[in-house]
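Invent a record, attention on tokens:
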Amino acid sequence: MFPIDKFDNLQTPFYYYDTDLLRATLQAINNEVARHENYVIHYAVKANANPKVLQIIREAGLGVDCVSGGEIERVIESGFQTDQIVFAGVGKNDWEIRLALDKNIFCFNVESAPELAIINELAAEKGQMARICLRINPDIDAHTHAHITTGSAENKFGIAMKDVQSVLEMAEQTAHIQLIGLHFHIGSQIVQMQDFVSLCARINMIQDELERRGIQIEVINVGGGLGVDYQTPDKQPIPDFRSYFNTYAENLQLRPHQQLHFELGRAVVAQCGSLITRVLYVKQGSTTQFVIVDAGMTDLIRPALYQASHKIENLTSSEPQAIYDVVGPICESSDIFAKTISLPRCHRGDLLAIRSAGAYGEIMANQYNCRSLPASFIKEEIDQ
């Protein structure tokens, strides 16, 4: 899987993207979408905005879900059509809203009554109509890490269930707003389909109430959230998209005139990316043996931020196994990739691969400790 002989001459740490797997994942998505009428996929750019990755996703025909003006600019630079862009986010800045209006994006996912008022005001300045979906917080526990759940009542995202009717009325009465749909997103790294079943039940209830009031909606956007296998990435490198899409087909009462939109991020790119790092030192502590590598939480923050677990492989040793804590060089005690894991005996200079790092890896890298951002390479570049 890894062209190790080509890695040895590259400066670590760096991200490596298996673009064969990325294309196979995108093909699997498109194959499943083709089995359902009126399903539309937007890639959640916040997962990975590497221009080379975005180009492949664009070639597969996906739209994009952006959460900042910078992401909108990035995807336009990458060749996406502006009518493929949805703009989400709880705190849209005025300049970002103006940018989206200027580019005539597909729609805004609106998260509050004050935001709705500002979008209307800025659209009025330009003499435009702003297409919107109202993001509703359905108050559903997605059984995932507290930092990546977004659909519970205590989360900052979306319009509370108790406020839906008043905000709907506001949208209907606002001169420069065109309400086209409803948006939902309950969290990330969800592996229990029952959570999506619960979302469908809540949407069905809301739709029934809207129809009783004579309100028809064109678009239902259910966000994303589908998780991946971090522990055994080679066992299921492509997520079970069939079960995911079938869950909505079987449980959501979609009306004949409606489109169902998805915003998949992690499930698209996580498994194709790995962080490649080199062993600097093997240090024996009083009770723990440490493998100190040249990558740190500045390059992959998920373990420090979410206590996330990534499979780690020693690419250059086939010696007997030993138990290590794998840690980085950052001056923080939380700069730990894994504790008490078994690896082939490690030595200075060994190359390690931290797997399933294609989502929320490179995109979240930072320059704490004045470190350089990690480089990135796609398979085609390495194979040349």
Q: What stands out?
A: The chain has a mean pLDDT of 93. The domain at 4-13+272-383 is CATH 2.40.37.10 (Lyase, Ornithine Decarboxylase; Chain A, domain 1). The longest strand covers residues 273-284. The chain has two domains: 4-13+272-383, 19-270.
